[in-house]
């Protein structure tokens, strides 16, 4: 074989091997990218080692056979780690029209008159950089008719981007609140502001009722700023993991074991608002409870105390409604100090 033929053959083999390696790499990369996402039919979407979103009637955590994951009119927020998904919080939609606020989880549905607005997925998307869905919501009694775009980005798997829009038949909305409604499950008590850490035990000291308790919201200038200028506020428990995971053994608590904190790790919950989109009306709003929610009944005997005292329940950013406005909600295994130093 001549030297020229040998050289051409070596070049061809080398080109083939390089091409095969490149194609294999692309295949592995595509497989790895596909494996980054969690999807279960049209009700559960999420990211590996990150946030998970679900819609009623799906349960994102398999507590017991046939469970639907909780009330209608809320979307579920969970976290996936080491192959397990735990349900951490709920999100409610609360539009305000002419000063009248309505709550998606207790507003009756026009379909059956029962609590909870219907929510469903109308479209989905899956790109190299993001996965998500459009969530439709039946029209509210106050005339509001919002819908949401939920996105999880590959470079930020621990948070969901929530964009708010409205249909042409919607009444004008002054605000369309998106609120995390179940801070008591994680016993969130520390709220990290720019100049202080507010503790719910001190803020609501002496409160022992079955209802919510609320103080004034915090304006944007009380919020911390990330290194890129984004507004951010975080909330965490004030207990050790051992204290948080413990559960009283009295019969009333054993009957309500679903309130026991089940993950084997702690999470920081946070809201983020991009600096380019922030409005002057931006606020941080929290309220608190001293007893776990029990469906709205008035008999104190049907409620149990939150171990350790009052904690934050609703946790949200409030802002004047602008179509397409974005809020980011996150769950992170980083501590609040680590997260807020980024």
| Strand fraction | 35-45%
Helix-strand makeup class = alpha+beta
- Could you name the ranges where pLDDT drops below 50 across 5 or more consecutive residues? 2-32
Portion in helices: 10-25%
What string, H for helix and E for strand, traces the elements in order?
HEEEEEEEEEEEEEHEEEHHEEEEH
What is the domain total for the residues? 2
Mean pLDDT: 89
CATH class of the largest domain: Mainly Beta
CATH architecture assignment of the largest domain: Distorted Sandwich
Individual helix count: 5
Overall form: globular
Computed over alpha carbons, the radius of gyration is 23 Å
CATH topology of the largest domain: Beta-galactosidase, Chain A, domain 5
Could you tell me the number of beta strands? 20
CA(first)-CA(last) distance: 63 Å
**Biggest beta sheet summary:** 10 strands, antiparallel
Signal peptide: 1-34
Keywords: Signal
């Amino acid at each position: 074989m001549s030297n020229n033929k040998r050289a051409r053959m070596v070049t061809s083999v080398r080109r083939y091997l390089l091409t095969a390696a490149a194609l294999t790499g692309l295949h592995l990369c595509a497989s790895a990218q596909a494996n980054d996402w969690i999807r279960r039919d049209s009700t559960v979407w999420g990211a590996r080692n990150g946030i998970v979103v679900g819609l009623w009637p799906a349960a994102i955590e398999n507590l017991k056979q046939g469970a639907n994951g909780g009330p209608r009119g809320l979307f579920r927020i969970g976290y996936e780690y080491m192959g397990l998904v735990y349900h951490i919080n709920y999100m409610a939609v609360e539009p305000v029209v002419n000063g009248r606020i309505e709550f998606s989880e207790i507003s009756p549905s026009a379909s059956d008159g029962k609590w909870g607005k219907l929510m469903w997925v109308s479209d989905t998307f899956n790109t190299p950089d993001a996965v998500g869905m459009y969530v439709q919501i039946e029209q509210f009694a106050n005339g509001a008719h919002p819908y949401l775009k939920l996105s999880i980005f590959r470079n930020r798997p621990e948070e969901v981007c929530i964009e708010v829009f409205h249909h042409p038949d919607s009444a004008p909305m002054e605000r369309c609140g998106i609120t995390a409604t179940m801070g008591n499950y994680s016993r969130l008590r520390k709220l990290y502001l720019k100049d202080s850490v507010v503790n719910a035990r001190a803020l609501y000291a002496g409160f022992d009722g079955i209802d919510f308790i609320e103080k004034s919201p915090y304006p944007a200038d009380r919020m911390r700023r990330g290194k890129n200028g984004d507004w951010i506020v975080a909330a965490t428990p004030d207990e050790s993991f051992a204290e948080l995971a413990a559960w009283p053994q009295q019969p009333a608590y054993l009957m309500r074991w679903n309130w026991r904190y089940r993950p084997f790790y702690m999470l920081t919950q946070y809201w983020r608002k991009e600096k380019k989109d922030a409005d002057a009306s931006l606020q941080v709003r929290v309220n608190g409870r001293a007893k776990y929610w029990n469906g709205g009944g008035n008999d104190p005997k049907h409620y149990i105390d939150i171990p350790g005292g009052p904690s934050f329940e609703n946790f949200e950013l409030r802002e004047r409604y602008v179509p397409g406005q974005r809020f980011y909600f996150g769950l992170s295994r980083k501590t609040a100090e680590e997260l807020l130093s980024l």
